[in-house]
Structure formats: structure tokens, C-alpha cells
Design the sequence.
């Protein structure tokens, strides 16, 4: 009897059936380990319950991040809150089971202090033994401000390999004291960040001298520092960020920066060279002032003396710099928080167009407090004009907080006159920035409407290329009872 020939469709069905039997567990162990390494640490540990094959796959996880949130999600409603002791137990348990190899990052985020030093020391030793590339310690301080944890720099001196694998180091709310001898430093460290770290000027200088490959240095809220100095050459240091170190009186670095971000009082800035400096962000405030003048800034800030600091004081601190020019600057965001007395003249900031000849986008956000609201009228006198030359790169301008004061009008007209390639200028009467310490400040609708009327009458009227758009208020037309068309303003 002749057998029936199986159809091609039957073979395809068998092939699909065979393919469906392929399981994830059939993959090689190294492939599975690679898959697990892409999960979060919490999810990677959970895979250990799947089977014996999966039980230890997570032990090679390269990114060890610990924070209380990992335990909060497991806490049942009504149970006791998660504490730092629970997180300490978790960290110790995980590190004990880890294979101790291939660790890229070890990060612990928890409010710990010197009482837990024996646990944290053990974690640092694990980072050294596992050749961790990034150690991030965001410890913070619990209530009551107990004694700070003293970071064990002495552990990085037992051999030449200690710390040599570390590329990134972030320390927060710790005390850092270098040993008198035997400290090898971090020869391959490229990024160092210190937040609220208690360290002396001498120890910081010594630390930097042992980080020859450093590319980024960030220091914030380190109140014990009075001088930030690096006499030894830091040829690879290109990015420096110093924020709210209110005791610092001088910054002297033997490097050539590309990016400088500084927030604090006016201090001398000295660098070996400024030929590569392209991105400067300065946020100036007075130490003894109860009002914090600025909230944030993208390049340059303003108070009564800040413009002088930009045009004369800041350049004078930079060796070999004769003229302040931001040749490579394309986008500038400037926040002017003008407080009381109207001693600041907005027209002075026309100088910034000369500073940045390649500027393409300018954002000018103003916030005026207790300045007296006097919108410009023709009887207030003729508008001033400054000497100017064409700016051939500026294409976009955005001004906010425009109340129609005379110097605001003069600045807007100067920008409009100089910018030969301008494609769009938006003038918004509404305030988009607020100081941190005055959230209750509310501007009246009248100020917005006056700004709208002045911007329309003097700036938009001078626009010959139809690029000016005035925002923040608008005309609403209606028909009166007598049949005539009238309008009113809404903001």
C-alpha cells in the first residue's frame, strides 16, 4: 500500500513545533549572565528563584546600586518602616554572595555616619578587591547630625594596585583626611565629585596631585575649604564645577578648562591657560545677604556689581586674557534678578553681543522686585542707543519679564538693530523665573499689560522684517450696545 506523501505544510508545522520547545534556559551560561546583568540589581536577584541554573547568575552583576527604595517596595502596609539597618544588612548580604569580579559600579545611598564605619569600611575594601571602576557614596546625614564617617583613604596605600582601577569617585557628607604617608592616590581617576565633604585646603591639593588623569572635578557645599588650589599640572582637567563653597576666597588651577561652572561669591579665578575655555556659567551671590539673588543660571548672572565682574573683574583673573570673548558660544541663557532701587541698567547687557560673536540663540529672563513700575512713554525722554556693528549669527531671541521699562525697551531695540540674521524675537511680558526665597511674589496684570503695550508700540513698530512677536497679553474685540467695535486686554 502506497504511503501518502506528507505535505510541505506538515513539515513547516513540525519545524514550528520544534522551535517552540527552545527555552531561555537552553542558552549558554555566559549569555544568560549577560542578560541578567542588564536588569536592575533588585530584579537580577529575584531571578535566583527560577531554577538551580539561575540561582547564582546574579552574582556577577556589574552594577551594585543600593538604596532604601529597594526595600520600601517589599514593605507591607502597616509594617515597621525600613531603616538604614535594613539596608546595611542587604548590602552586606549581597556583597558576601557576589563573585567579587567585574564590578563597574558600587553605589550606596543612605543616611549613614561614623557609627556604621565598620560596615562602610568593608564595602570600600570590597570595591578595592573587586577592582570597581566607580564608587559612589551618597551617605547624607540623619537627624541630629552625628559624627561624620571618615573615608578610609589609608586603604588605598597597601599596594600600588589599590585604587588604580577606580575611574569615578563620588563622596557625600563624609570627612576626608589623607594619611601622612603611604597614600598612592587614584592614578586612573577621571571624575571626582565631592558634596558636603569636610576636607582641608592642604589635603585637597595633595589629593589632586595624585589624580593626574582627572578630567572632571566637582566640589559643592564644602564649607571647610578656603582655597581651591592645584599647583601640579592637571593637563587633562577640562571641566570644573564649584558650587556654594562660601568660605572659598581663591581658585588657582594649573589646567586649561573647556567648561567652568561657578556658583558663589566673587573670588579671583586663576588658570594656566584660557585658550580652550568655551562654556562659562557664573552664579554670583553675596555671602551675608539673606536674599539669595539667583536661583539658577546657564552662563552669566546679574546683581549690582556682577556686570563689572563679567567685563573687567572676571577677565582680569584669567592670565593672558586681554579681551573677554566667548568665540564658540552658540546658546546663552541669561537670568537677571533685579532687586530694588533699579541700580541695574538692562542696556548694559548689550555688551554681551560683542562678547559672543557666534551666538545663535539668546534667552533673557528678567525678574524685577521692588523696582517701581514705570512703563516707558515718550515724555520720559528720548531712547538711548549704543554704537553697534552687525551681528551675523543671532537667529533667535526670547525675552521674558518685559514690563516696558525704558532700559528694557532700549536693550530690545539694540538687539533688533544689530541682529541682521534674526529670524524670531519673542517678547513675553510674563515672569518665568522666581527667586528661591520669594515664592509669594505675584505680579499684577497691569504690569503685564503695560509691557505688552510698550513692546507693541516701540519694539514691534520698529521691526521691519516681521520677526517680533509680543506675548503675555492679547486684544479681545467685542461689539458694544451702540454697534461700535471695541476691545479690551486679557493676560
Sequence:
Amino acid at each position: 500500500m502506497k504511503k501518502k506523501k506528507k505535505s510541505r505544510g506538515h513539515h513547516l508545522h513540525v519545524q514550528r513545533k520544534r522551535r517552540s520547545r527552545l527555552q531561555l534556559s537552553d542558552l549558554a551560561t555566559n549569555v544568560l549572565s549577560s542578560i541578567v546583568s542588564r536588569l536592575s540589581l533588585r530584579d537580577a536577584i529575584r531571578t535566583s528563584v527560577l531554577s538551580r541554573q539561575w540561582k547564582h547568575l546574579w552574582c556577577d552583576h556589574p552594577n551594585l546600586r543600593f538604596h532604601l527604595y529597594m526595600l520600601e517596595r517589599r514593605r507591607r502596609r502597616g509594617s515597621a518602616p525600613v531603616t538604614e539597618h535594613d539596608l546595611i544588612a542587604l548590602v552586606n548580604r549581597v556583597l558576601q554572595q557576589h563573585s567579587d569580579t567585574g564590578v563597574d559600579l558600587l553605589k550606596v545611598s543612605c543616611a549613614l555616619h561614623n557609627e556604621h564605619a565598620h560596615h562602610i569600611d568593608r564595602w570600600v575594601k570590597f570595591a578595592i578587591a573587586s577592582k570597581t571602576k566607580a564608587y559612589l557614596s551618597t551617605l547624607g546625614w540623619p537627624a541630629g547630625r552625628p559624627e561624620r564617617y571618615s573615608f578610609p583613604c589609608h586603604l588605598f596605600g597597601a599596594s600600588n594596585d589599590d585604587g588604580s582601577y577606580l575611574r569615578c569617585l563620588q563622596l557625600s557628607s563624609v570627612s576626608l583626611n589623607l594619611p601622612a604617608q603611604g597614600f598612592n592616590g587614584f592614578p586612573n581617576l577621571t571624575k571626582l565629585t565631592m558634596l558636603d565633604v569636610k576636607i582641608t585646603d592642604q589635603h585637597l591639593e595633595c589629593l589632586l596631585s595624585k589624580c593626574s588623569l582627572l578630567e572632571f572635578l566637582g566640589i559643592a557645599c564644602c564649607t571647610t575649604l578656603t582655597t581651591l588650589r592645584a599647583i601640579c599640572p592637571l593637563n587633562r582637567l577640562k571641566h570644573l564645577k564649584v558650587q556654594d563653597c562660601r568660605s572659598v576666597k581663591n581658585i588657582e588651577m594649573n589646567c586649561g578648562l573647556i567648561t567652568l561652572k561657578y556658583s558663589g561669591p566673587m573670588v579671583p579665578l586663576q588658570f594656566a591657560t584660557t585658550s580652550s575655555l568655551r562654556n562659562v556659567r557664573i552664579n554670583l551671590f553675596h555671602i551675608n545677604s539673606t536674599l539669595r539673588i539667583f536661583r539658577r543660571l546657564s552662563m552669566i548672572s546679574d546683581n549690582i556689581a556682577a556686570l563689572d565682574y563679567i567685563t573687567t573683574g572676571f577677565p582680569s583673573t584669567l592670565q593672558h586674557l586681554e579681551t573677554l570673548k566667548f568665540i564658540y558660544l552658540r546658546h546663552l541663557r541669561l537670568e537677571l534678578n533685579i532687586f530694588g532701587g533699579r541700580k541695574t541698567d538692562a542696556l548694559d547687557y548689550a555688551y554681551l553681543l560683542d562678547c559672543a560673536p557666534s551666538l545663535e540663540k539668546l534667552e533673557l529672563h528678567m525678574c524685577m522686585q521692588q523696582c517701581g513700575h514705570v512703563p516707558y512713554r515718550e515724555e520720559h525722554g528720548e531712547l538711548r542707543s549704543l554704537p553697534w556693528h552687525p551681528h551675523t549669527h543671532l537667529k533667535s531671541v526670547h525675552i521674558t519679564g518685559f514690563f516696558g521699562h525704558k532700559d528694557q525697551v532700549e536693550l530690545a531695540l539694540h538687539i533688533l538693530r544689530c541682529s541682521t540674521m534674526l529670524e524670531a524675537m519673542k517678547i513675553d511680558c510674563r515672569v518665568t523665573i522666581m527667586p528661591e526665597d520669594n515664592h509669594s511674589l505675584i505680579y499684577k496684570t497691569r504690569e503685564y499689560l503695560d509691557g505688552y503695550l510698550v513692546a507693541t508700540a516701540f519694539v514691534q513698530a520698529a521691526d521691519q522684517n516681521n520677526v517680533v512677536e509680543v506675548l503675555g497679553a492679547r486684544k479681545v474685540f467685542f461689539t458694544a450696545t451702540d454697534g461700535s467695535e471695541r476691545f479690551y486686554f486679557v493676560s
Q: What stands out?
A: Residues 445-459 form the longest helix (15 residues). Residues 286-308, 315-323, 436-441 have pLDDT under 50 and may be disordered. DSSP finds eleven helices and 22 strands in the chain.
